[in-house]
């Protein structure tokens, strides 16, 4: 039968994480490994009550090491089922958020997206023009809700996790696009991703034309020529596939690579290695 830890033991173990003796630290980590996921609720409680950032970081690391195996299993199961549409991509990115915050209540973030989409649902429904529907959505996300790019701290991992982007209203181009795509799915609007090199874009796909949108520039509409100029300026020869509607599985892989890059910038090699395993599952299963 699984062992249930007592609060005072968890508190003592957290205190010992600061011990300068490597053997003591090794023993503490082994004890947390023995306690497994039963220790997570108490660890989460102590983390929320802690006033020291270094202690919070240490607790985060312990929670991540305890829960990583089950997140890996969940991710493998999700990949086996496929990531072939916008709903499955949302599931995948919310699960990926648990890699950053293992105690995340995923359902709460679905509810947040549901609530946001309901705020403009009737306006979208009663507007017959597809172009106006697009404009209402872009105005809502980038003007009213003030979702925006984080140019000052671009490589912060918070910009690459869906839950953090929803809470902070800041993120990478791909995550800002994800917000629009997931709200659009609820409202039946044809917003999709464009896996352009260097800079992820949005597409609004109508029966007679496709409109490209820059999520990092407040949802401004751009031309194909502008995108080609941007690519050439950055040393990339534009190809037709660079500006096509993106495959959802490819979007997921790009999100994982973005996180790997962010953790590499922060010199957190352990997290990079863990993400490499997730990417390997995605590349072999999707």
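Sequence proposed for the structure above (286 residues):
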């Amino acid at each position: 039968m699984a062992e249930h830890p007592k609060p005072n033991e968890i508190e003592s173990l957290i205190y010992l994480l600061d011990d300068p003796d490597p053997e003591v630290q090794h023993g503490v980590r082994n004890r947390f490994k023995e306690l497994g996921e039963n220790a997570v609720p108490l660890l989460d409680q102590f983390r929320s009550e802690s006033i020291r950032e270094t202690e919070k970081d240490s607790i985060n690391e312990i929670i991540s090491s305890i829960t990583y195996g089950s997140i890996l299993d969940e991710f493998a199961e999700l990949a086996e089922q496929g990531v072939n549409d916008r709903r499955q991509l949302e599931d995948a990115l919310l699960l990926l958020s648990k890699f950053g915050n293992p105690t995340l209540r995923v359902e709460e973030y679905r509810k947040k997206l549901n609530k946001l989409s309901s705020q403009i649902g009737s306006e979208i429904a009663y507007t017959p023009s597809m172009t106006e529907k697009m404009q209402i959505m872009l105005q809502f996300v980038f003007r009213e809700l003030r979702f925006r790019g984080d140019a000052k701290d671009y490589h912060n991992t918070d910009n690459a996790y869906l839950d953090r982007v929803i809470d902070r209203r800041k993120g990478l181009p791909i995550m800002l696009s994800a917000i629009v795509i997931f709200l659009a799915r609820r409202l039946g609007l044809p917003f999709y991703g464009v896996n352009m090199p260097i800079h992820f874009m949005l597409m609004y796909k109508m029966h007679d034309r496709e409109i490209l949108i820059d999520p990092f520039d407040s949802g401004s509409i751009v031309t194909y020529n502008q995108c080609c100029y941007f690519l050439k300026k950055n040393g990339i020869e534009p190809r037709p596939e660079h500006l096509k509607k993106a495959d959802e599985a490819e979007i997921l892989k790009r999100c994982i690579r973005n996180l790997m890059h962010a953790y590499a910038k922060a010199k957190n090699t352990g997290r990079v290695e863990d993400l490499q395993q997730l990417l390997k599952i995605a590349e072999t299963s999707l």
